[in-house]
Amino acid sequence: MPLVRISLKQQDDPTYAKRIGQLVYAAMHSAINVPENDNFQILTEHDEQHFIYDPQYLGIQRTDSLVIIQITLSEGRTVDQKKLLYTTIAENLNTQLGLRLEDVFINLVEVKKENWSFGNGIAQYAL
User: Fold this and answer.
1) Quick check: is 123 in a domain?
2) Where do transmembrane segments lie in this chain (predicted)?
3) Is 14 a catalytic residue?
4) What's the CA gap between 83 and 87, in Å, rounded?
């Protein structure tokens, strides 16, 4: 059960953030086997004063088109699965939306399965 947060600068196209979310979900589904319909996302657009980033950290040249994607998910994926996820997301955003690879920032936050409640006050994944 990933929870995805996508942050970017305010866009003229009101569908842009949602299209990013759709591509991120498709990448999670194919790269790390996220189940069908397991799609929970928070899409946030920010003005210039509320979207801060370093344009050159680690020698990567970022622009104002930067998209920050944070995915909280249950622990257990291999390093290779994570690398495939990063690549798939970046390539999908590049080919489908023209987003530069340098402008795709991804952070995974892994948590234990008992740290989820999908509703009803129950820890559905707790063993």
Assistant:
1) no
2) none
3) no
4) 6
pTM of the entire predicted model: 0.94
Phi, then psi, of 63 in degrees rounded to 5: -120, 180
Strand order in the sheet with 40-46: 40-46, 3-9, 67-74, 104-111
Give average pLDDT by consecutive 10-residue segment, the chain, 127 residues.
96 97 97 95 97 97 98 96 98 98 98 90 85
Say if CB 21 and CB 97 are below 8 A apart: no
Show the domain range for 32: 2-115
C-beta neighbour count of 10 within 10 angstroms: 13
φ, ψ at 105 (rounded to 5°): -110, 120
DSSP 3-state of 86: helix
Which residue in the list 2, 14, 35, 55 is annotated as catalytic? 2
Domain count, the chain: 1
